[in-house]
Write a structure and sequence with these properties.
Layout: E1 8-12, H1 17-28, E2 32-37, H2 40-50, E3 54-58, H3 64-78, E4 81-86, H4 102-121, E5 127-136, H5 149-169, E6 175-181, H6 188-192, H7 195-208, H8 217-228, E7 239-242
Parallel strand pairs: 1-2, 1-4, 2-3, 4-5, 5-6, 6-7
Helix pairs in contact: 1-8, 4-5
This protein binds NADP nicotinamide-adenine-dinucleotide phosphate.
The site of NADP nicotinamide-adenine-dinucleotide phosphate has 29 residues, from helix 1, strand 2 and helix 4.
């Protein structure tokens, strides 16, 4: 019997990367899964890949009407949510403070902060007693690095939301926790760099990362399975870091 047998799980940002790997893991553990993304083509591809126990819905978490439509569909098909993985997030363009525009800043906050907040708020009527809510933050929420101030601060807000939601929703029997991935191989490096640069970056990662490699999305999905399942019944308001030790060690000395 799977660790999520019979549970209904909604995964925002479930059409690629960490969210898609988690959808596969949740299905393997016996859950029925709803994956959500903005791009209809990716939504259709995810549906084809995940099969009949999965539902794929196009919705932008930054758009409250689209969140309402998403949850209306979940209510019609499943009547409840046992696991909510609020994972949709965007890095935004890496920009120094003096080059940041209000549009670029707002786009990052609209998905990462506002989107995460209302993904949870609008799910409340459907969350079952004993439900698990998992928010995706990032180890970037806790250190300073140039050119990522909007993204890093948005993920600090998500970490804070996990703590506040945990305190508030436990009264309804709902557990809230956060996952904090480190660099994860979801194609982000290939998307941002040329093939020559990718080689250089990968070599650098080998020498600087404690495990000499990025995480695979499946390794983050395994953490999500733990937090989604009753195995984590005494874990509440936690930020579970899965970064191969990066934020625990220092390479400064
Ligand atoms: N990869 C890493 O190294 C890393 C490290 C730390 C934290 N994270 C966090 O992990 C989460 C997943 O990242 P990933 O690397 O798996 O990225 P990814 O492969 O780019 O996947 C992002 C997913 O989120 C969806 N999405 C983005 N904005 C959305 C919105 N406004 N509404 C609905 N869906 C939206 C995307 O769908 P569309 O493409 O259709 O928009 C896609 O399904 C993010 O929150 C990210 O910040 C990633």
């Amino acid at each position: 019997m799977g660790r999520l047998q019979g549970k209904v799980a909604v995964i925002t940002g479930g059409t690629s990367g960490i969210g898609l790997a988690t959808a596969k893991a949740f299905l393997r553990e016996g859950a029925r899964v709803v994956v959500v993304g903005r791009d209809q083509k990716k939504v259709d591809q995810a549906k084809d890949l995940l099969g009949e126990r999965a539902v794929a819905v196009r919705a932008d978490v930054a758009n409250l009407d689209e969140l309402d439509a998403l949850y209306a569909r979940v209510r019609d098909e499943f009547q409840r949510i046992d696991v909510l993985f609020a994972n949709a997030g965007i890095p935004g363009a890496p920009l120094p403070v003096d080059k940041m525009t209000s549009e670029a800043f707002d786009a990052v906050y609209a998905t990462n902060v506002r989107g995460t907040f209302f993904t949870v708020q609008k799910a409340l009527p459907l969350l079952a007693t004993g439900a698990s809510v998992i928010l995706t933050t990032s180890i970037a929420n806790d250190f300073g690095r140039a050119n990522v101030s909007a993204y890093a601060s948005s993920k600090a807000a998500v970490r804070s939301l996990a703590q506040s939601f945990a305190a508030e929703l436990i009264g309804r029997g709902v557990r809230v926790n956060a996952i904090s991935p480190g660099g994860t191989d979801t194609g982000i490096i290939a998307k941002r760099f040329s093939p020559e640069q990718v080689k250089v970056v990968m070599e650098r990662l080998k020498t600087t990362l404690p495990l000499k490699r990025l995480a695979q999305p499946e390794e983050i999905a395994n953490v999500a399975v733990f937090l989604a399942s009753d195995e984590s019944s005494y874990v509440l308001g936690a930020e579970l870091v899965a970064d191969g030790g990066v934020s625990r060690f220092t390479s400064v000395f």
